[in-house]
Every structure is written in C-alpha cells, then in structure tokens.
Write a structure and sequence with these properties.
Layout (H helix, E strand, L loop, with lengths): L10 E3 L2 E3 L2 H13 L2 H5 L1 H4 L4 H8 L24 H11 L1 H4 L12 H4 L1 E4 L10 E8 L7 E6 L6 E3 L8 H17 L12 E10 L4 E9 L9 H12 L6 E8 L15 E5 L4 E4 L11 E4 L9 H14 L5 E5 L5 H11 L7 E6 L4 H11 L2 H4 L4 H12 L11 H12 L15 E5 L2 H6 L8 E4 L8 H7 L31 E6 L2 H13 L5 E8 L9 E7 L9
Parallel strand pairs: 3-18, 8-9, 13-14, 13-16, 14-15, 16-17
Antiparallel strand pairs: 1-2, 4-5, 4-7, 5-6, 7-8, 9-10, 11-12, 17-19, 18-19
Length: about 575
C-alpha cells in the first residue's frame, strides 16, 4: 500500500514518516476492509472461492426427512453452526494470535479473517459412504428397516429419500428393503439377541457409480449367517439384474454387544461376490492421464464425503514445500501423502521421500496397489519385470561369478563400501522413496519414521494425537543431534533422542475440534518453537454440526529455516 503512494508525498523527518490526513484515511480504510487471511494464504492453498462457499450456503436442502432425521441440524447456512463459532472464537483469541507467524493487524477482524471456512462440495448427494442400522419391520421379524437411530434412542428413522446421500445409495437401500421382505431376512434384536442382520455399509465407487455393500451380521462366523445371508444376496442380485448396481458384496461378522459396528480382526471379514478393491481417482489427477488410483477395501477407513476430502487433500499438498521429506502418521491408505507425492512429482521440485504408517494391517495392500498405479518416475519404484531385465543385462547369462573384475573396479568397490570416497553417493535407504509401516503413531516415531523428515502430516481420529506423539513434537530442536534418516546411525541413548528433531512443518488435519484445541495449546505454549501459520475449516458434512480443520504449524528446525 505504501509503495502505491506517490513518492513525493512521503518525507522522512528524524527517521519518522509524515503522512497527510488523506493518506492516513486511505491506509486505515485499507487495513479495515482487507481480508487479511485470504490475502495471506487462501489463493495458494484453498481452491474453493468464498463466492462458491456463499452460493452453497444459500442452497436449501429441502429434505423430506429433515424434521425427524438425526443426521442434519440445519438445512441452510451450513457455516453458521455452533462448532464453527467455537473455532472462530478460539483462533481469534489473543493467546493464539500472539503465537501465529503473521498476526493480524489490530484493524483486522480476527474473528472473521483468520479462521476461514469452506464448503468443499455440493450440499446434496455428497455422501458416498453410509452406515445404516437395521431393525425388524414387525414383531414377527419379516423384513428389515434401514435407517439411522433416532436421537437419544435406538428406534430407527427410515430415510429412503435422503438428499445428502448419493442417489445410488438410496437405490441400494430400496433393493435391500425389498429383498429382505421377499426372503424374510431376520434382523438382530437388542432385547432377545440371536443371529441376524445388524448394519449395512454402502460405498459408492465414483468412477462407475457402483455400490460396494458390506453386510454386518450378528454372529461369530460365516456359518452362523446361513442360509439367510445367501438368500438375501441372491435376491438383491435378482432385483439388480437390469441396473447392475452392485460392485461387490462383503459380510462382516460381529458378535459383540457394544455400539461398535465393526469387530477387530481379519477373520471377521468374508468376501462374498465381486472385486476386492474399490478404486478412486487420486485427488488432483484424472483417469485419462493414469497418474494414480486409490484402492480401498471395506476393512480400510474411507471418508464419507470423498468429493470434499479431495479438496482437503489438495490443500495439504499445496501446503508442503517442494523437495521436502515427508512423514505421514495416521495415514490410512496414504491418501494425503500420495496426493502430495503426485502433486509435487509433476513439478520441478518433487518430494525426496514419503513414509506412511498406520496400525490397521489391511492398509498396506491398498497402499501398495495405489503406488503401483502411480508413474514410476514419481514413486521411484521399478516393476519386477523391469528390474529382472536390468539385472539380466547387468549380469549376463553366466552371472557375476564368471565375470572378471579389474584392479581399479575392485578398489572402487572397496572405497564405496567403507565410505572413504568423498564423491560416492550415500547408501540408498532400504525403505525406498515410498514406504509404509504398520504401527501406531507413537511406535512409528520410535522406529525412526520421522527422522530426517521436514514435514509431518497427522490426521488423527477424533481423540487427537497420542500423548507420546505430542511429547516428541513439543521437544525443542536439538542442534547437537546429528542429522540422519536412519535410526541405526543415531548416537547417544534412545531416551534422549528427539524423534521429530528435523520437522519444521506440521500439517494437522483434524476431525475433532476439541482435541485439536487441546493439541494446539500444547504445541504453541511449549518450548519447541511452534507457531501457527493458518487454520481453515472445511464443512465436510453440510447440514451437520461438524467441521474438519487443516492447521499448519511451523518452526525453525533442521537444516532449513522456514521463517
């Protein structure tokens, strides 16, 4: 703003600037009317414009089930919900603003400007995965009701025409309802127990519009579900003969009496029909370019609004500096990390490596399938066939045993082994450029997953970060700890190791605001030097009192200083 003023109007007197009243009025108007948060970082990280969000907020749901359904609390103004007001108050408080990288000027409205809110998808038809409870239609148990539990009760509210459901989900529920009536499928009863249909999960493969259906049956094994399960599946396929709606059918057996829909353990999962994986286009790519397909099984976590979460994934990718070394905890199938890998892989500064981890043992197969669909020049992986060809060309038919080495080649090999050759490149990390570890977040840190990482992505459950993860992140940067990417080369006792010593950027994706506020307090008030760069709220489930927050923290650490 000062640069836009005529040079002749600015005069320096005793190292102070003298401005006319008109210029002071111009400057004050600029400070008052400017949306500082949007000016600072929205154009580079958020692809949804404020105008798009306003337009979506002005669209009414007009859902016939709104008054009775417990799923939605509002059918308009989706950013005007209690949880977002709480978030705005928290991030606009002086305690937080004092610990931000670029505090807003006193003229700015911190309540409105710092915590930006976005509606990332259409407000109708956004739900591409739904879990519905099941109850018997009558006392005699002929047929099933599908819906959501009424507030403060276990009575089911049917929602056959839900407008936030993807249309294919409503179509699948209609087929299920008719099929259960036809074959008299028993539903599980809380009062009397016994075997029966308990829940259903319906997931839409957006590329094809087909439904991956998981039937949750109360029982200890597949044998206890028969013959009712086979009859239900057969009738569903019969009613679906013309539409070809179903992608696959799974059965999950759960005999626990709690509210958990799924029981732990792979032995409870039984594929019944169709392919194993549901495929989704990697955010920021398209099918034609063949830059990557995400793979999900029913055993892996999948967001209910994939269209909206694509925008969050791109926000995360744009927030990571090019050329970074990235570690992702609570990774699921690796959606956030792989999106960043592909996003920067198409630029001049690709990521150096990506390490993902999660405690679900079903995730690595999905991760590996996804990585295999990404171009090898981005992942750094070589197919088995190509590796075999290269090895064949290198060794020849007789192999290395029959080859003679010159004295020069022998000496060069010895120099490379003992590391005395200054020009030799460091040994390759056995984990490769892209790797996955099955471990909890705390265990992954202690295994050295974040050693040498510049950026840490965390997407924890609603309870927030584990205590040990917070403890490591709240440790100050230790310049005496040598830089290494492998725990084998660490010196000193392990209890004194800062397992996140080189991390200078945290990308925190939160699905529980209370836990985020608690974790944010500890990060900012500790002595690790963290400061908050930005916080953006995504209304991922329009109509509900829920917000997903992407918070970016930075500090001076490692070999590169950020601010």
């Amino acid at each position: 703003c000062l640069q836009s003023l005529p040079v002749r109007t600015m005069k320096m007197r005793n190292n102070t600037m003298s401005l006319t009243s008109a210029q002071i009025f111009l400057l004050s108007s600029f400070f008052i009317t400017t949306n500082w948060a949007a000016l600072a970082y929205a154009p580079t990280t958020i692809s949804i414009s404020p105008q798009e969000t306003d337009q979506r907020c002005n669209t009414n749901l007009d859902c016939p089930h709104f008054t009775s359904c417990p799923g939605c609390v509002t059918d308009k103004s989706y950013t005007d919900i209690p949880i977002i007001h709480s978030a705005k108050l928290y991030f606009s408080s002086s305690a937080i603003q004092q610990r931000t990288i670029n505090p807003l000027p006193p003229y700015a409205d911190a309540y409105e400007d710092f915590y930006q809110t976005v509606v990332p998808s259409s407000v109708m038809g956004w739900r591409t995965q739904a879990k519905l409870a099941v109850q018997p239609k009558s006392t005699w148990g002929a047929g099933c009701l599908f819906g959501l539990y009424e507030r403060k009760s276990h009575n089911i509210v049917e929602i056959p025409n839900c407008v936030v459901h993807h249309p294919q989900i409503n179509a699948a529920v209609d087929i299920l309802s008719k099929a259960s009536d036809q074959v008299k499928t028993p539903a599980w009863r809380e009062d009397s127990g016994g075997n029966g249909l308990r829940y259903v999960q319906l997931s839409v493969e957006r590329m094809t519009g087909k439904i991956a259906m998981t039937i949750i049956w109360h029982g200890s094994n597949l044998k206890e579900c028969q013959p009712h399960l086979s009859r239900l599946i057969k009738e569903c396929k019969k009613l679906d003969k013309d539409r070809n709606l179903f992608h696959s059918v799974w059965c999950h057996t759960n005999e626990s009496l709690g509210n958990a829909i799924f029981a732990r353990g792979e032995r409870n999962w039984h594929p019944m029909d169709g392919p194993e994986f549901v495929r989704e286009v990697l955010p920021g790519t398209n099918v034609e370019d063949r830059e990557g397909l995400l793979h999900f099984t029913p055993m892996a976590f999948r967001q209910g609004n994939m269209d909206g979460f694509d925008e969050i994934a791109m926000h995360v990718a744009r927030s990571i500096p090019g050329g970074s070394r990235v570690c992702e905890l609570y990774a699921g199938v690796g959606l956030l990390g792989l999106t960043a890998l592909v996003h920067h892989g198409k630029s001049d500064e690709p990521l150096q490596w990506l390490r993902c981890s999660d405690e679900n043992p079903a995730n690595p197969r999905c991760f590996k399938r996804t990585v295999n669909t990404i171009p090898s020049e981005i992942t750094g992986r070589i197919s088995k066939r190509k590796a075999h060809r290269q090895n064949y060309k290198k060794k020849g038919k007789k192999g290395l045993k029959d080859q003679e080495l010159t004295l020069e080649e022998l000496m060069q090999g010895m120099l490379n082994e003992d590391g005395s050759d200054s020009n030799a490149s460091p040994p390759a990390d056995p984990r490769g450029k892209v790797s996955y570890m099955v471990a909890s977040a705390a265990s992954a840190l202690h295994e050295g997953q974040a050693l040498g990482a510049d950026v840490l992505i965390v997407d924890p459950p609603r309870k927030g970060l584990e205590g040990e993860v917070l403890t490591q992140l709240c440790k100050p940067y230790n310049p005496k700890q040598g830089f290494t990417e492998d725990p084998l080369f660490l010196q000193g006792p392990k209890y004194a190791t800062n397992w996140a010593n080189d991390v200078h950027t945290i990308v925190y994706v939160s699905c529980g605001f209370d836990a985020l506020a608690r974790d944010c307090d500890q990060l900012l008030k500790g002595n690790a030097g963290w400061k908050l760069e930005s916080a953006t709220g995504y209304v991922l489930f329009p109509g509900s009192n829920h917000v997903e927050t992407v918070a970016i923290f930075k500090r001076k650490a490692g070999r590169d200083y950020i601010y």
